[in-house]
Amino acid sequence: MEYAVADLYWKDAAQTANLKSEEVDKILAKINEVAGASYESFSAAVSGAAKSTAADGGVTIDASGNDVVVTIPAKTVGDEAKDYTFKPALTLTYANSAIVNITVDVKVLAPVVTDLKLGANTINWDGKSVVDLMPSANAQEMTALTVSRKLSEVLLATDIAALKKAVVTDKTVQLKITKGGDEGEANLYPSTINFDDFNVNATAEDNEVSYTFSLYYTPKDQDPVVLNANLLTVNLKPSVKVAGTITAPEETAIELTKLTDTYDLSTDFTWKEFRGVTIWPTFAVATGGATTDPATVDGALAIYSGSVKYIVAEESRATFLNCFNTEGYTAETGEIAAANKTIQLNDVIREQEGAIVNPITVKIKVIATTAWGAPENAETELIITYPEGSTK
Questions:
Q1: I need a surface site. Which of 24, 281, 342, 358 has the fewest CB within 10 A?
Q2: What value does the mean pLDDT of the chain take?
């Protein structure tokens, strides 16, 4: 006698299927007919026989009470060449040598995924969700910054709904989320995942990080089978420019009319890191910004491994050497030490009687750098002139 149960789909947990009660009644009638018996229940008919079973591909069959039960192990899927069908058999042998063979066809199909039409998404982060960036102790160097978004913020609501409806039954297909080439990023059930609980991340130094979403299942004792490769790719492009922006003076051509005038090369500059915290030439915590307060500008810059250099342009170095105070100046590189950023003419010129006959002009570059890349507007050239006729 051969029967069939309703089609099943691969599942990561064991499954069972029973014959219908009317089918069991037919089996009981056949047993009474061939065995010359009058069993009133299927369980009694099984008790009166010698029972044997034959599994097929791990799929087993047995009599349980008044039911015929087929058990399908977790992750089992049928062979396409055999129409995905297993045929476990139950044999009952009676005293009069009558034999009743019961075979149940069980079709276990691969998961079916609906046609998902999801569009690729590109998410740009500005880093504003990052808090407590400043280290907790004095001017510790910042070594890492990760920006994070919830999966529910990255995927469109329609995409999430489509993923949840993509599988035939609950917990059949897993969602593989791959970051770059890391296959172990996350394996999740689209029907049960809380998309608010899963974050996707990129670090500030990344130009772009791609998360690829695909649906797959893993047959018993086999490698994973991808049902829908590259279902959705989300490109995360961190636009966080940790180093921030420098605002330069509106006027970069500076004219000093007295030979005794000095000039601070950081005048009218403002350097704000990416959250709006001013770190040079003064340090000020923006409202809702950093959680610690380095005591000095050097301390604030150290957090970013940052520095500001003052470099005399090559064509101005002879003039600077001959006409300016050179304390803290390195002739080989043209660099003026930060401690000497307030420049002035040398004592001979400052104290001379009468006006200078020729103008004195130098070009000096103000250049900012950090370990996290250069800030916007990182280099400015100042032109500083003592015009003809200047006196002390």
A1: 358
A2: 84
The torsion defined by the Cα of 319, 323, 328 and 330, in degrees rounded to 10, comes to 30
The C-alpha atoms of residue 26 and residue 33 are separated, in whole angstroms, by 11
Contact assessment for residue 10 and residue 77, using Cβ atoms and an 8 Å cutoff? yes
C-alpha 105/C-alpha 354 separation (Å) is 114
Structure tokens at 164: 């949840």
Angle at 131 between CA 203 and CA 124, to 5 degrees: 45
pLDDT at position 173 is 72
The C-alpha atoms of residue 158 and residue 334 are separated, in whole angstroms, by: 60
Q: Give 89's contacts (C-beta < 8 A, 6+ positions apart).
A: 53, 54, 56, 61, 101, 102, 103, 104
pLDDT over threshold 90, residue 89: yes
The C-alpha atoms of residue 177 and residue 240 are separated, in whole angstroms, by 24
The structure tokens 């000096």 sit at: 364
- The structure tokens 């994973």 sit at 224
Categorise residue 286: left if φ over 0, alpha if ψ from -120 to 50, beta otherwise.
beta
Backbone phi, psi, residue 314, to 5°: -55, -40
Indicate the length of the chain as a whole number.
392
Ordered strands of the 60-64 beta sheet: 15-18, 67-72, 60-64
Contact 262, 344 (CB under 8 A): yes
CA distances from 370 to 23, 104, 143, 292, 308 (A): 79, 72, 12, 20, 9
pLDDT over 60 at 287, yes or no: no
Q: Kindly state the average pLDDT of the residues 347-370.
A: 96
Q: Which residues contact 365 (CB under 8 A, 6 or more apart)?
A: 310, 311, 312, 313, 379, 380, 381, 382
Distance (Å, rounded) from C-alpha 361 to C-alpha 318? 11
Q: How far apart are CA 49 and CA 230, in angstroms?
A: 55
Which two tokens mark 376? 């916007």
Q: Is the separation of the CB atoms in 326 and 320 below 8 Å?
A: yes
